[in-house]
Amino acid sequence: MTQTLRDLLDAAARGVFPPDDGGTTVVPQHAHRHAGVIAFTAHAVVFTDEDERWVRGALAAVDCDPLAAALHPRFLADFMARTGRVHDTVDALLVGAPLPGRPPLALREIADSGHPRVAAARGHRDEVRAWAADGGVVALGRGVAGRLEVSVEVAEGARHRGLGRDLVAAALRLADEPVWARVSPGNARSLRAFLAASYRPVGAEALLSATARSADCSGSRS
Predict the structure, then answer these.
(1) What is residue 2's DSSP assignment?
(2) What pLDDT shows up at residue 94?
(3) Higher pLDDT, 82 or 162
(4) Across the chain, which distance is largest between two alpha carbons, in Å?
(5) 28, 47, 145, 178: which sits with the fewest CB atoms below 10 Å from its CB?
(6) DSSP 8-class letter at 129
């Protein structure tokens, strides 16, 4: 049976990954919004509606270790040129399992659909819900292949006291399925917060979008 991108992500959330054989799996996009690359250990997944023969030819043309080809700048540049899409950075891809119990801090759901955090999240995800805490906001929505994705925002005056960690931990108690996050590897503070909240790194991801995207304040993607 042919695997979809969602099949591969659901398996990864369970700790089941593609074979570490140095290969590349090419699957169709789940929706128009996102194309891209996910690099697992010694196996890459390219999700695109482009001809698979083009993908494999472009990868073969990159002069580097084949294990690195799918995230190589030359391939990503060719991918953008081919599709007319944009790309900003390669993110660490993490996933957390849902947890029982109440969130570790008081939250109130944001009913205002025009709230800046809700509006920003809706630019990248569907079915967005957001909750506010004293000094921060956490949002959940359907992103790549319909996976549930988290983003957080911490106010400048509320940083350095563990609020980011508590917000991303809260997301695991607001959900009844795995929660995914993309974090810029250079934002060590944000990455530490997700790791401390029991999210697991599963790979790296480069998204190609039809419009420019921006990172939110926390370093996880908006």
Answers:
(1) P
(2) 98
(3) 82
(4) 53
(5) 28
(6) E
